[in-house]
Write a structure and sequence with these properties.
A hairpin with a 5-residue loop joins strand 4 and strand 5. This protein has two helices and eight strands, in the order αβββββββαβ. The chain is mainly β. The chain is elongated, with a radius of gyration of 21 Å. Helices cover about 10% and strands about 65% of the residues.
């Protein structure tokens, strides 16, 4: 037999063999809605401080690939709590590493991801992008789960835009997520 013909056939079958662990559950999709808050601690160069809080809803889709790994994306819309004219629209993409994504019971995980959002006050819009890291914990029932978590965001874009020029910004998010598994 010619090895040049057999080798590609065997290599193409390898992913099937690697992912065909019959003891593990099959990958699933989770869809959910979440309340989300974005809190920014701003310290201006003149020593004045302020905290800005945005709150709203987030729609989440997650692919539970194994019990220890999940890919997650979300879309959100947040309103500034002190001024309803300032709105934040955004999305993020995260890789979550932890336990319990595909099993019933307690779960906890760490996440690493990217975010992209727009601040819009009706007359001007600013685009912000960056990295985020976070942690969460929750509980999974039969086909429904609840998670509570937070993330800390890279604030360099916030400090360079016209919203917070000449300020040190610390940006963090918190969420309470309810999702169903399909």
């Amino acid at each position: 037999m010619d090895f040049k013909i057999i080798a590609p056939i065997l290599i193409s079958c390898l992913p099937t063999y690697v992912f065909a662990n019959f003891d593990e559950p099959k990958p699933t999709l989770s869809l959910g809605a979440s309340s989300m808050a974005l809190v920014q601690s701003v310290k201006y160069k003149d020593s004045s401080n302020t905290t800005n809080t945005f709150a709203g809803l987030q729609l989440i889709a997650a692919g539970n690939l194994t019990d220890n790994f999940q890919l997650q994306t979300s879309l959100y819309r947040l309103q500034y709590t002190d001024n309803s004219e300032l709105t934040v629209y955004g999305n993020n993409f995260k890789a979550n590493f932890g336990t319990g994504f595909m099993s019933k019971g307690f779960r906890s995980y760490l996440s690493v991801g990217i975010f992209s959002e727009s601040f819009d006050n009706g007359t001007k819009s600013e685009r912000i992008n960056g990295l985020e890291v976070g942690a969460a914990m929750g509980y999974s029932f039969n086909k429904v789960s609840i998670d509570y978590g937070f993330s800390v965001r890279d604030s360099s874009d916030y400090q360079q835009d016209s919203l917070y020029a000449n300020a040190d910004v610390i940006s963090a998010t918190g969420f309470l997520n309810f999702s169903g598994e399909f």
